[in-house]
Amino acid sequence: TEPGEALARFLVERSFASAVFFCNSGAEANEGAFKMARKWARAAGGGEGRHEILSLRGAFHGRLFGTLAATDRPAYRLPFRPLAGGVSVVERDLDDLATAMAAGTVAAVIAEPVQGEGGVRVLDAGYLRELRALTREHGALLILDEIQCGMGRTGSFFAYEQAGIEPDLLTLAKPMAGGLPMGAILMSAEVAAAMAPGDHGTTFGGGPFVASVALHVAERLADPALLAHVRENGAWLGEALAGVARRTGRVRAVRGVGYMWGVDTHEKAGDVVARALDAGLLLVTAGDHTLRLLPPLVTTRADLARGVGLLEAALEGAPSIRGGGEG
């Protein structure tokens, strides 16, 4: 459709990609990326032997069959065993990854530049550069899952830009169409060349209405002024959260980038979420002891400050952790 073509052109012009495939969700996008990686590996001469997909400890890539096997959440995985074959979770350590890739059976490694469900763990620029080099050394593709951390949330339109690298495949979804069902797979020319008509498809992906909305959203989120706003206020937010940690003594660690932050708590994170909600602050957990903060990208510093104050009050409302509390 014309809106789909315009959206694809917008994404290609602002990325490494030469082609885009539209679908309906993030999990769909990752499933499609797995298929494309395997097709590319076969076309590149790897045959059926180079078929494995590796994900990293702490990963979340979806709850469909292939993506569930790449998701490191035992509670999500256990009821559906046996999981899809040829998809494995490995430690984030680069030496462990190199060992897993040594046999030459890996088609691709998938990683989130910032792991959301896994505790808001930022893969720093140096790590991502080494990961990119490692995949090239072993003849494998690098898939970056920016479903949660992409499209402005880290302060750049694509999170990978901050590492100065280019992946072979990139997946997008959550903010893409302002709440409407939309996902996308961005691919390099080499990957696109390996795909033939009919290799992958979707009934509703990239429909004209959703694509029109997604183009408007993408244009807004790519605005340099908005991205600067996220970078500057995100840095302030990190300092403010560190201050909360110092003052309350109820926080183990703070980490994040832009408008995506994780706060590790001594008590159960769900208890803090409940008290914060009572006070008017909406939070979500990212593990038993991690709060995930994902403010809208238009949030002002004044609103961030109000939210930080409510968070501090919610933390202070916990029973004393001194002398026998969790820690």
Q: What this model shows, in words?
A:
With 327 residues, the protein is α/β, with parallel strands linked by helices. It folds into two domains: 2-221, 3-Layer(aba) Sandwich (Aspartate Aminotransferase, domain 2), CATH 3.40.640.10; 224-316, Alpha-Beta Complex (Aspartate Aminotransferase, domain 1). The protein is built from eleven helices and 13 strands. The protein has helices at residues 2-13, 26-46, 65-69, 74-77, 94-101, 125-137, 189-194, 208-221, 224-248, 269-279, 301-316, and strands at 19-23, 52-56, 87-90, 106-111, 114-115, 121-122, 141-145, 169-172, 183-187, 251-257, 260-265, 284-285, 290-293. β12 (284-285) and β13 (290-293) form a beta hairpin. α5 packs parallel to α6.
